[in-house]
């Protein structure tokens, strides 16, 4: 989760009130943050804020926290309003960037008065949004420039790798290729563009370079100081909606510092847009849903008041709340998201806990007991249990396993992945659809250990199910992997045979072709005419992808079709 430092005095200037350190501990909760640390430096108190929501980049700076607190305390109510004045500035986007880094959105903010703390917060917000929300600049990269040094119109174009400019922090010109090799940011982020035929460049009408997205700004235009009054904001990436949200977050934060927002016309080869677009977003929620799930005695006007304190414009009609909410938010996807805001405004600490009066006794879930029994069975066969993460990524589930998403391999899923929209790390960007890659990853991390390695996991996978409200279903599976120099299909089959015999099921193996397994040594597992799993020897190319030098035999099957009482 994002962590960042804020000055107590700066926060209080932005809120318009002073508070004790103890009061700030509670106030941070309104902004979905926790006060992680407090210290004094040069006579001034600083806080380390620990954000608990990766979907609210608008709360990752002093400006966003202060804005949220002003509204939560009722100092302001309803929808924050930001005027956007139209400028005569145009940015032209090069068609050659379509397969390199296709989109850019822009804005101008004038009339700023930046002190050192404001400058620090601007840089912090820029970095945190690009790092976390922007997936380490892959999806979102942000540049902020001294607009008084820029001569419009501006061009976002594809550049030859031999072109030169002075990157931020240097005093000499470097070619674009040299920047990737010599500059700290070039070495860190160069992999995002290194293999492209051209590199992105943002230049003005006089040919002055503003930046090389997503790597580094120019020393000439990209150094913003306390003397800077007017800035030009640039956000680039692959998803127009995502970079537009990032732009909205940055420009409204600067507006909280007194800046005046101006729009920029962006001309693409096949369309034009004006950015930023701060048009409020719409949502509708049933009032009875809020009342029922909060468990609080709230009237319609109470709900309206609480939502207005969370920056909503509210219209009550026919038992519903019709809502407008700020364009710098993109986290309202379900009524429960609105419900959360109601509870934040009410105050979690103000809710009195009640012990439920139940006329029933709790007991263990029978299927969970079945899963535990399967675990004990596998341990009895001499296998070691492992527990791996449900979160994974597309490359692990598909790429390294030599399969394509959604393709029918005559076996149960893997189907299409459920991917996380704003993951903290690309490594943990999806929910897994099968366990075998997780076991191979475990073996890859333990190549230094002695063989044989005989492991299993009873774990969950997440599959797409359009018939459900969440569009997904969680299924329990058993996976086994055996690794040693003489491992064979037969050894894996012997364990499968023992599992089926102990569970009281007969099964059939049907030979199939599957890219993850060696041809002629792979089959699907069929019980009562239904395909429930797969067994085989892992293909050498898959083992090479994982860095495993030992042969591996594996099987994987769904447990739900094998559940019946008594189960052992």
Describe this structure in words.
One of its GO terms (molecular function) is phenylalanine-tRNA ligase activity. Tetramer of two alpha and two beta subunits. This protein is an alpha+beta fold and 568 residues long. The chain folds into four domains: 1-76, 2-Layer Sandwich (Phenylalanyl-tRNA Synthetase, Chain B, domain 1); 81-275, Phenylalanyl-tRNA Synthetase, Chain B, domain 3 (3-Layer(bba) Sandwich), CATH 3.50.40; 281-347, Phenylalanyl-tRNA Synthetase, Chain B, domain 1; 366-562, 2-Layer Sandwich (BirA Bifunctional Protein, domain 2). It contains 15 helices and 28 strands. The strands form six sheets. Strands 4, 5, 6, 7, 10, 11, 12, 13, 14 and 15 form a ten-stranded mixed beta sheet that branches. A seven-stranded mixed beta sheet has the order 19-23-24-28-27-26-25, sandwiched between helices. A hairpin with a 5-residue loop joins strand 25 (508-511) and strand 26 (517-527). The longest helix is centred in the first third of the chain and has 18 residues, at 116-133. The chain is globular, with a radius of gyration of 28 Å. The model has no long low-confidence stretch (mean pLDDT 91).
Shape: globular
- Looking at this structure, what is the CATH superfamily of the largest domain? Bira Bifunctional Protein, Domain 2
User: What structural class results from the helix and strand content?
Assistant: alpha+beta
What is the CATH class name of the largest domain?
Alpha Beta
How many E-type strands?
A: 28
Q: How many distinct helices?
A: 15
Low-confidence parts lasting 5 or more residues at pLDDT below 50? Answer: none
Head-to-tail CA distance between termini? 44 Å
Largest sheet: 10 strands, mixed
The CATH topology of the largest domain corresponds to BirA Bifunctional Protein, domain 2
Report strand %: 25-35%
């Amino acid at each position: 989760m994002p962590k960042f430092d804020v000055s107590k005095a700066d926060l209080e200037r932005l809120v318009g009130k002073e508070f004790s350190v103890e009061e700030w501990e509670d106030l941070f909760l309104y902004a979905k943050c926790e006060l992680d640390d407090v210290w004094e430096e040069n006579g001034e108190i600083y806080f380390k804020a620990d954000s608990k929501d990766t979907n609210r980049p608008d709360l990752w700076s002093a400006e966003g926290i202060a804005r949220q607190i002003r509204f939560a305390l009722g100092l302001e109510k309803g929808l924050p309003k930001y005027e956007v004045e139209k400028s005569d500035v145009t940015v032209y986007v090069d068609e050659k960037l379509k397969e390199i880094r296709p989109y850019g959105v822009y804005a101008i903010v004038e009339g700023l008065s930046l002190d050192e703390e404001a400058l620090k917060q601007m840089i912090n917000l820029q970095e945190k949004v690009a790092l976390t929300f922007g997936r380490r600049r892959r999806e979102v990269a942000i540049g902020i420039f001294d607009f008084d040094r820029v001569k419009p119109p501006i061009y976002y174009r594809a550049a030859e790798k031999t072109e030169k400019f002075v990157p931020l922090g240097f005093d000499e010109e470097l070619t674009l290729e040299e920047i990737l090799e010599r500059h700290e940011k070039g070495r860190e982020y160069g992999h995002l563009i290194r293999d492209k035929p051209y590199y992105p460049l943002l230049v003005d009408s006089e040919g002055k370079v503003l930046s090389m997205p997503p790597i580094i700004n120019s020393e000439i235009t990209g150094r913003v100081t306390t003397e800077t009054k007017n800035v030009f904001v640039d956000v680039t990436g692959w998803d127009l909606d995502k970079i537009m949200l990032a732009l909205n977050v940055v420009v409204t934060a600067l507006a909280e510092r007194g800046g005046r927002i101006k729009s920029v016309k962006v001309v693409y080869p096949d369309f034009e847009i004006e950015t930023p677009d701060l048009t409020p977003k719409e949502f509708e929620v049933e009032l009875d849903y809020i009342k029922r799930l909060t468990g609080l005695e709230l009237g319609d006007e109470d709900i309206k008041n609480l939502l207005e304190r969370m920056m909503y414009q509210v219209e009550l009609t026919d038992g519903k709340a019709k809502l407008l909410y700020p364009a710098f938010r993109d986290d309202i996807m379900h009524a429960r998201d609105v419900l959360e805001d109601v509870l934040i405004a009410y105050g979690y600490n103000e809710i009195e806990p009640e012990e439920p009066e139940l006329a029933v006794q709790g007991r263990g879930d029978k299927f969970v007991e079945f899963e535990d029994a399967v675990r004990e069975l596998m341990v009895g066969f001499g296998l070691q249990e492992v527990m791996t993460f449900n979160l994974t990524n597309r490359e692990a589930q598909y790429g390294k396993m030599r399969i394509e998403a959604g393709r029918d391999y005559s076996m149960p899923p893997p189907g299409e992945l459920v991917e996380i929209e704003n993951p903290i790390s690309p490594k943990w960007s999806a929910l897994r659809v099968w366990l075998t890659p997780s076991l191979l990853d475990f073996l890859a991390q333990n190549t230094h250990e002695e063989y044989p390695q005989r492991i299993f996991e009873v774990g969950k996978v997440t599959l797409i199910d359009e018939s459900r409200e969440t569009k997904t279903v969680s299924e329990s599976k058993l996976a086994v992997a055996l690794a040693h120099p003489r491992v064979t299909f037969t050894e894996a089959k012997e364990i499968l045979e023992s599992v089926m015999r102990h569970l009281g099921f007969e099964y059939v193996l049907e030979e199939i072709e599957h890219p993850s397994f060696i041809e002629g040594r792979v089959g699907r597992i069929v019980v009562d005419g239904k395909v429930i799993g797969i067994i085989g020897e892992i293909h050498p190319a898959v083992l090479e992808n994982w860095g495993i030098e030992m042969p591996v035999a594996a099987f994987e099957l769904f447990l739900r079709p094998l559940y019946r009482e008594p189960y052992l």
